[in-house]
Automatic annotation (TrEMBL):
The keyword Flavoprotein applies. The keyword Flavoprotein applies. Transmembrane segments: none annotated. One of its GO terms (molecular function) is oxidoreductase activity. This is FAD-dependent oxidoreductase. Its cofactor is FAD.
Length: 408
């Protein structure tokens, strides 16, 4: 069995390890446009901050490919798929044959068509290691940085560079920071914390036009800057599958095994849709754990072992300047809040089930208990949920449930 994997991040690693758990001998070839050993993208901001280095960013050790029997073609792009012939065409015309193929091509930063953007000399995105290196080379202690986008990517970029530049201003059309993962109250707390670190926000506002190093916002306000970072979102890289006739919606469409609508072509990670078990919707879940598990499931299936991944869910564990938060699931149903001066917890309950939660502050211990309640769809009337909301502990579960969980 000849395996080819397009991509070299979490989904690709999951696929390699899924294949090797079943098939120790079949040749695996990894083709990736980036020239680097597999690395962890969430660590790019820590690289800029000086909290890590290129060696510690590696997602697997240097010996990984050799030990797993993987041939690598790094710094090489796939140009087209020929699913009927079971071939991948590389840029330059070289063809690779496969029996099973995984597309794990990730996503690309979205660059909005803003008036005058072409007049901005120092503009960057912030998704890849090369993005981080280019941005770092442009920064000086006197740089005024303007970040367009107050989501996860924009704010992690702000954290990574804040101590090494003169100022950081952030604009977002949404009325709050982190609009995709926080409710209004949680966002207010995070914003207040970030402002104490020197960040300035323009929320409910965005750029109307650029003129060199000046951005005129829709409100009429102006922002003068030296460096621009575009962090308004990403787009799944679906063209290889789409151009080959595969079904694409928001992302590449796959079944629970990772199989696309093309024969023997699988997909995993940020380029494809997942079934969100907390909302019942098919959507792109651009999250490292989901990417890994999707890839692992696809790898096992490609190697001949029946496998499926049906428990994907939105989940984030992240920190900004020492303030940590965990979010998971969908924010639907009744909202139950526990809060004090330091900590904020919000739980979302629908039809007697926990659907999602937000934890902010020094209250993250044992958060996995909440995640398990969501994943396993545990009826809340079988646990002491009022106790769990205050203190997540296994004593809140019935004796029968504890016996089931721990085997005693």
């Amino acid at each position: 069995m000849e395996y080819v994997i397009l991509g070299n991040s979490a989904a690709a690693v999951g696929c390699i390890e899924g294949i090797r758990s079943v098939d120790r001998e079949g040749p695996i070839t990894v083709v990736a446009s980036e020239p680097y050993h597999t690395y962890s993208r969430p660590l790019i901001s820590y690289l800029l901050e000086g909290k890590t280095d290129l060696e510690r960013m590696k997602y697997r050790p240097d010996s990984y490919y050799e030990e797993m029997g993987v041939r690598t073609r790094l710094g090489v792009r796939a140009a087209a798929l020929q699913p009927e012939e079971h071939k991948v065409v590389l840029e330059g015309g070289e063809e690779l044959s496969y029996d099973k193929l995984l597309v794990a091509t990730g996503s690309t930063p979205f660059v909005p068509p803003l008036e005058g953007l072409d007049t901005v000399e120092k503009q960057f995105t912030f998704l890849s290691l090369d993005d981080g290196k280019k941005l770092e080379a442009a920064l000086t202690p006197e740089s005024r940085v303007f970040i367009l986008g107050a989501g996860l990517i924009g704010l992690k970029c702000a954290e990574g560079i804040a101590r090494r530049v003169r100022s950081v201003e952030v604009a977002d059309l949404a009325n709050q920071v982190l609009p995709s993962i926080l409710d209004e109250e949680g966002a207010k707390r995070v914003q207040a914390h970030l402002e104490k670190q020197g960040l300035t926000f323009h929320l409910g506002d965005t750029v109307a036009r650029f003129s060199g190093n000046t951005a005129t916002l829709q409100s009429g306000a102006s922002v003068n800057f030296d460096v621009l970072v575009l962090a308004v979102g990403v787009r799944p890289n679906v063209s290889l599958v789409q151009d080959a006739g595969g079904r694409v919606e928001r992302g590449v469409v796959i079944d629970s095994t990772g199989l696309t609508t093309l024969p023997d072509v699988y997909a995993a990670g940020d380029c494809c849709q997942s079934y969100d078990s907390t909302s019942g919707e098919n959507k792109v879940l651009a999250l490292l754990p989901n990417a890994y598990f999707q890839g692992e499931c696809a790898g096992k299936t490609m190697a001949g072992e029946a496998s499926s991944f049906t428990r994907a869910m939105p989940m984030n564990a992240i920190g900004f300047f020492g303030l940590h938060l965990i979010t998971a699931g969908s924010y639907r149903g009744e909202k139950l809040v526990e809060e004090d001066g330091k900590n904020y917890k919000a739980f979302f309950v629908e039809d007697g089930l926990l659907k999602g939660y937000i934890l902010l502050g020094d209250c993250l211990e044992n958060a996995g208990i909440y995640t398990a309640l969501i994943r396993e769809q545990t009826p809340l009337n079988t646990v002491d949920f009022s106790l769990l909301r205050e203190h997540p502990q296994f004593m809140a579960f019935s004796q029968a449930k504890r016996r089931e969980m721990f085997g005693r």
